[in-house]
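does this look right to u?? iron/sulfur cluster version
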Amino acid sequence: MKYVDEFRDGSLVQGLAGAIAREADPARTYRFMEFCGGHTHAISRYGVTDLLPPNVRMIHGPGCPVCVLPIGRVDMAIELVLQHGVTLCTYADTVRIPASGGLSLLKAKAAAGAGGGDVRMVYSAADALDLARRNPERQVVFFAIGFETTTPPTAVVLRQALAMGLENFSVLCCHVLTPSAISTILESPEVRAYGSVPLDGFVGPAHVSTVIGSRPYEFFAEEYRKPVVIAGFEPLDVMQAILMLVRQVNEGRAEVENEFSRAVGRDGNLKAQELVAEVFELRREFEWRGLNIVPYSALRIREAYAAFDAERRFPLVYRAVADNKACACGAILRGVKRPWDCKLFGTVCTPETPIGSCMVSSEGACAAHYTYGRSRQPA
Ligand code: SF4
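got this back:
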C-alpha cells in the first residue's frame, strides 16, 4: 500500500538504526519523549527500542486521549446513562475506562436496565448525530474525547445539529489541547526543578499536526531549547525522527523539523482550525489524568451552540476523583515511571482487566508494552 509499505521497509530501518548508532555520542545519553499514543504503539509494535543503542532512550508522553481522561469525566458520562437515561455514544476504548464504584461505561450499559439509558460505541461523531436523527424520542449524547485530530469532526456535527434544529442531541465535550500538555510537562518539577525526567527533545504528533501544523511547536524549541521533530506513525518515520533529534542535540540546535512533510505543513489545516474556533472556546481549566488541573488546556462549547452542550442541558457537576492508589498511570503519563514499574502490571492489571486507563487503549503505554514487549524491560 502506497505511503505505508515503503515506510515499513526493514532494510531501510536497519540502515537508520546503523546511522543512529554511529552518530549517537557514546559519552552522553539522549532522552526523547514521544508525545503521542500512536507513536507509543508504533515503538512497541515494531520493536523500535530494540533497534536503538542503550544511550538513546524513549520516554512515553501523555498523548493517548483515553489515558488522560480523568475518572471524574467518565463518571459524568456514566451519570448521564444511569441518572438521565440518555443514549451515550463514544469511541470504543472509552467504554472500558475504569471509573468510580467499580463502574465503566460498559458496565453502566449492563446496569442501565429499566432506567432506559444505553451506551453505543461509534466510529465517528457523525454516527452519533445520525442515531439522534433516527430516534427523536431518545436524548442522544456524544461523549467527545481526544486531541486536535478529533475536534473538527465534533465541530461539524454541532454545526449540523444547529442547522437541523435537533432537540435530542448534545455533546459532552472533553477535547484537549496538545501544546498545553507539552508546556505542563516542560514546566513540571520533575523536568524543571528535580531533573528526574531529563528531556532532550520530542517526537511531535502526526495526526494532531496535520490539523495544527508545525508552528505551535516553535515556542517549545525557542523558549525551552527543546528540539521537536514531527513524525509519521510508521517505523521508518519514527527512526528517521530519532536520527534527526540525535543530530540536533549533537549540533546544539533546538528547532522544529518536520519528518512527516507528506501530510503536515507549517500552518496546518486552516479550514479545520476556523471551524473549531467557530464552535469551541478555551476552558478556563481542565483536569488531566497525571497532569492535574491544567489552565486553558481544553475546549468547551461556545454560547452560540449552548443548546447542544450536555453540561448545560443536564444538571452535571464535575467532581475530581483520585486514581487507584496502586496504579501508576499518572506518573507514567508524566514520563516519571514506566509500565513495568507498576506492581500491578501484567498481574492484576491486563488489557482484559484494566485497573488504570493506560491499560485500556492500544495507544496506552501499559497496553502497548503488555501486548508487544512484556518480556522485555529496557534499561
Ligand atoms: S499497569 Fe495498570 S494499574 Fe499499573 S499503571 Fe498501568 S494501567 Fe495503571
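The chain has a mean pLDDT of 94. idk if thats expected tbh
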